[in-house]
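pasting for the record
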Amino acid sequence: MLQVPDVIVEAGWLYENLDHPKLIILDATIKKVTSSSLNNSAQEYIKNTLFFDLKNTFSNQESEFPNTVLDAVTFEKEAQKLGINQDSCIVVYDQLGIYSSARVWWLFNLMGFQNIAVLNGGFPVWKSKKYLIEQQQTKSLPQGNFKSSYTTSLFISKKEVLNSLSNLDIKVVDARSHNRFMGIEPEPRKDLPSGRIPNSSNIPYTEVLNECILKSKTELESIFKSYTVETKVLFSCGSGITASILALAFRYINKNNFAVYDGSWTEWGSDVSLPKEQ
């Protein structure tokens, strides 16, 4: 059985294992909400890639908020359709480096599956190495036997966040840009007010990256040094995507006491009954 060595893998590791029968490679690219480009489709792929449709297939289409996590049963069925098995080894990447791929890593962990890693630097690093590229996705797999086992500790709801605000052992960390966090810059989603969750702190997701590569463990330990093993960290952002990047970085340095606030500021800011800072 092929096992990922850590929550991230380097391009060289993926290249060496590219044709392993248990390896599943997922492209989870989505457009940044802050991007003005409408082109969301990749033109090149790592060999043997399957497309993981984060926006449509693997988000709850009935939710009023973007990127809402699926229930465990639906996630299981859709993962099986992709050909994912209980003994699969998954590497997920995106065309931007490390962006939406971290969300997919968190989703699988939420569903009880941990043999998954994010490709460090994503497609840009893979291409820079001149490794094998396809112009179209040709791989398909038979139905898999993936099973979900929901890990409740990795998910936190709006109500739970609200109830935690007076608990000194729980910290909300926002991954949005500093200007959005401070309410200086308007939110990219129309009609969503600016502001932040009370008592939250800000680590823009770009601070854990060197361009498209995750920073070293030493650098990340410095960034997260104020969060002790007793502290429960709740990662938030605009809609749950970049919060997952902070969660990935946190887990990479063996800090496990965290959850992702799935609704994030899109849900919190839309609720006029909730307290806000600006």
